[in-house]
Specification:
Layout lengths: L1 H16 L9 H18 L3 H12 L17 H5 L10 H6 L18 H13 L5 H12 L2 H17 L17 E3 L6 E2 L5 E2 L3 E5 L4 E3 L4 E9 L3 E8 L3 E11 L8 E2 L4 E5 L16 E9 L4 E4 L2 H14 L1
Antiparallel strand pairs: 1-4, 2-3, 4-11, 5-10, 6-7, 6-9, 7-8, 8-10, 8-11, 11-12
């Protein structure tokens, strides 16, 4: 019975993270999105990358069985139409009367939550209520989502989009240099005893001391430093609401810092055997990289098995060589 429940739970988790596993979408949808972001920027002076990051965040908190949309931002009906507008009247004058937030983005006189231009324009105007600067937008996002991690994810994603000037960022890399000897197998869910009985939330990639460790994805360095369990570790938040956890490293790249934007292949440190003790503890196990992945759905965050992705990214890395 327990085994059956575990299988059902794993299937459910895979369905939720499925948007991260699919192949890159047809490039035309990225072009269409970017055109809408740029148009809304021209109308409101809200930089396009903030709108793109909000849209990307909301796309990646939806379950995979929902149909793909060009724009995935959803504004609650009571906020869009206003309190008391129970008939959901879309006339902009009536929405204003009911103190709704819905706006007309395409000039047809109605504010339709199914219209992508109206949705983007409305979201931009919600942000502008607090101001156009970065700190103003952070405040607006907190008031909209009421959650620090959601705000942080949106801001990180906007930073990545701004840095690369693009939203079609689908490249990946293997986390350990394939030019060195390494080995790994699926160890997610195995028992661990240090610090109390728990499961292994990742895959161990065994390699020699000093083997380069690389970013697998586009993202932002969200955390770095010492952890009792993980030793010297780095956390990267990517544009798909996923946190990538690198642990037991021997050290970091000299110029690495929190808030730094990274891309696939950027070297962030090297393989080691640190952890399971106070800062500096090393050698309690063979040198390896612990690589974990954690999905955020806008309400909570959980670990999932990175092994299938590592196999795919290893193949991609070898194909490039």
């Amino acid at each position: 019975m327990l085994f059956r429940i575990t299988i059902i739970w794993l299937i459910f988790m895979l369905l939720l993270i499925q948007p991260y596993t699919v192949q890159a979408e047809d490039e035309s949808i990225y072009d269409e999105r970017m055109a809408l972001f740029k148009k809304t920027e021209a109308l409101t002076q809200i930089p396009w990358y903030y709108l793109a990051a909000i849209d990307n965040f909301e796309r990646n908190i939806k379950s995979s069985d929902e149909p793909e949309q060009v724009i995935s931002i959803e504004i609650p009906p009571e906020l869009w139409f206003g309190p008391g507008n129970s008939s959901f009247l879309k006339d902009i004058a009536l929405i204003d009367t009911f103190n709704g937030k819905g706006k007309d983005g395409d000039g047809d006189g109605i504010a339709d939550p199914e219209n992508e231009e109206d949705v983007l324009y409305t979201m931009a105007m919600i942000l502008l209520e607090y101001g156009p600067d970065r700190d103003d937008i952070k405040i607006a996002l907190w008031n909209h989502y009421k959650r620090d991690l959601s705000v942080q994810t949106v801001m990180n994603t906007s930073k990545v989009f701004q840095t690369f000037g693009d939203i079609n960022l689908t490249d990946r890399d293997f986390p350990v240099s394939i030019e060195h000897n390494y080995s790994y197998r699926n160890t997610w869910g195995d028992r661990r005893g240090f610090g109390g009985l728990r499961i292994h939330e990742g895959t161990d990639i065994f390699a020699g001391y000093g083997v380069p460790v690389k970013s697998t994805t586009y993202g932002v360095i969200e955390m770095m430093g010492w952890n009792l369990y993980g030793g010297w570790r780095v956390g990267i938040r990517d544009i798909f609401n996923i946190y990538h956890y690198y642990a037991h490293m021997s050290g970091f790249s000299d110029d690495l810092k929190v808030g730094q934007v990274v891309k696939p292949g950027d070297v962030i440190g090297s393989v080691g055997s640190t952890g399971y003790g106070p800062p500096g503890t090393s050698g309690k196990f063979p040198p390896h990289l612990h690589y974990g992945m954690y999905k955020d759905n806008g309400y909570s965050e959980w670990s999932f098995d990175p092994y299938p992705y590592l196999v795919k990214w290893e193949r991609m890395a070898k194909d490039k060589n």
